[in-house]
TrEMBL record:
Designated name of the protein: Kinesin-like protein
One GO CC term, this protein: microtubule
Organism whose genome encodes this protein: Sphaeramia orbicularis (orbiculate cardinalfish)
SUPFAM superfamilies: P-loop containing nucleoside triphosphate hydrolases (SSF52540)
Keyword list, A-Z: ATP-binding, Coiled coil, Cytoplasm, Cytoskeleton, Microtubule, Motor protein, Nucleotide-binding
Binding site for ATP: G180, Q181, T182, G183, S184, G185, K186, T187
Classification via Pfam families: Kinesin
Length: 384
């Protein structure tokens, strides 16, 4: 520069950014900064890539969910279609099943033989539908819808009744009657023992598995109705007939679900049953025992519900009065028993005539055979 007035030269101007002499520490920092910048860039690019991938995946997920919703809608439609088909099939199956039972005979008679003893006439099962009774040297044969031999088990007899018992769940009313002379095994067949239960307990068990069941138990003694499940079993009840329905107002009704409930109801009923002795059997039951099971069945798939009643009757002994040599109260009982059994027989005849009329009208037949044993002629006279 130009010399100053005082002859001195101006001091040189300092540099705007003087570059400090590089120390070993600052060299390391700049290297690290560079590296940091590089990894920052890489990280940004990775994050950008991940975000793009996630976006793509979200799009795919959205597509998949849309497809699933569509498929679900279609599946729901198919399920509804299958449900309605099932409903139709269930109704058809029930109707065919029950028609089959009707064709086999709406009234069926089974015979269960007991082991013959020296004092009893010899009863012998000759085939599945025939028994022979040998008495005083002569042999008489009788036909039934089914014959159970003297070695038949409780399971076998129950299996024979099972098809009609199953109808109850479909809303049909079914009645099973045990009929026979005193000591012939009616109570054994219907009630059985704790270890080897009969039709009553087995059907109760079976039906309580299939639907909601309610038990009613009553006895009929000398034309008097007694509720066997009430705390006051001696009180007589009335029978009410309204149109086609018969009811006993005030009859105790107990809901049964478990096996313990069933046994409890049966035991209470049995305890309250009037038992008196006769000449032929010390533990002779002198009353008819009626156990009615009201079953409400519902199909969870189709939503259909039905209500049926299974009536199980252990009738009083059907022996002849003269044979038992009954006198006094026993004679009164025997007369009442025989009167009610005769009424039952008359009802059977009436029912058979109704069935015959129905068959003639619907099938236009002049002559028909019902239950394989009864033959009707044109004048409503029947022969066995
Ligand atoms: N199939 C059988 N196997 C074994 N024991 C039987 C059989 N049938 C009946 N009994 C026995 O015979 C006896 C009389 O049977 P049960 O009481 O069932 O006759 P019942 O027809 O009900 O008589 P009642 O009319 O007097 O009531 C009972 O001790 C019973 O256990």
């Amino acid at each position: 520069g130009d010399p100053l007035p005082n002859g001195r030269r101006p001091a040189p101007e300092p540099e705007a950014n003087p570059v400090p002499p590089e120390s070993p520490g600052s060299c390391c920092v700049s290297k690290l900064t560079r590296e940091l910048n590089v990894s920052n860039k890489q990280l940004r690019s990775t994050v950008r890539q991940s975000l793009t991938d996630m976006k793509n995946q979200l799009e795919q997920l959205k597509d998949a969910m849309g497809k699933m919703a569509l498929e679900e809608q279609q599946a729901a439609g198919e399920v509804e279609e299958l449900r309605s088909l099932y409903r139709k099939e269930a109704v058809e199956r029930k109707s065919l099943y029950n028609k089959l039972l009707e064709l086999q005979g709406n009234i069926r008679v089974f015979c269960r033989c007991r082991k013959s003893s020296a004092s009893n006439p010899c009863v012998e099962k000759t085939d599945d539908q025939e028994v022979a009774v040998i008495q005083k040297g002569s042999k008489k044969k009788f036909q039934f819808d089914k014959v159970y031999g003297s070695s038949s088990t409780q399971e076998e007899v129950f299996a024979g009744t099972l098809p009609v018992i199953t109808s109850c769940v479909d809303g049909y009313n079914v009645c099973i009657l045990a009929y026979g002379q005193t000591g012939s095994g009616k109570t054994y067949t219907m009630m059985g023992s704790k270890e080897n239960p009969g039709v009553n307990i087995r059907s109760d068990r079976r039906l309580s598995h299939k639907g909601r069941t309610e038990d009613l138990t009553l006895s009929i003694y000398n034309d008097t109705l007694n509720d066997l499940l009430t705390k006051n079993p001696g009180a007589a009840l009335d029978l009410r007939v309204q149109g086609k329905s018969v009811s006993v107002p005030g009859l105790t009704q107990i809901q049964v679900q478990t096996e313990a409930d069933i046994l409890n109801v049966m035991e209470t009923g049995e305890k309250n049953r009037k038992i008196a002795s006769t000449k032929m059997n010390i533990q002779s039951s002198r009353s008819h025992l009626v156990v009615a099971l009201e079953v409400e069945g519902s199909d969870e798939v189709s939503g259909l519900t039905s209500r049926g009643t299974l009536t199980l009757c252990d009738l009083a002994g059907s022996e002849r009065i003269a044979k038992t040599e009954a006198t006094g109260q026993r004679l009164v009982e025997a007369a009442a028993i025989n009167k009610s059994l005769t009424a039952l027989g008359q009802l059977r005849l009436y029912l058979l005539c109704v069935i015959e009329k129905f068959i003639r009208k619907n099938l236009q037949m002049n002559e028909c055979i019902i239950c394989s044993k009864l033959c009707f002629t044109d004048r409503n006279v029947f022969k066995t």
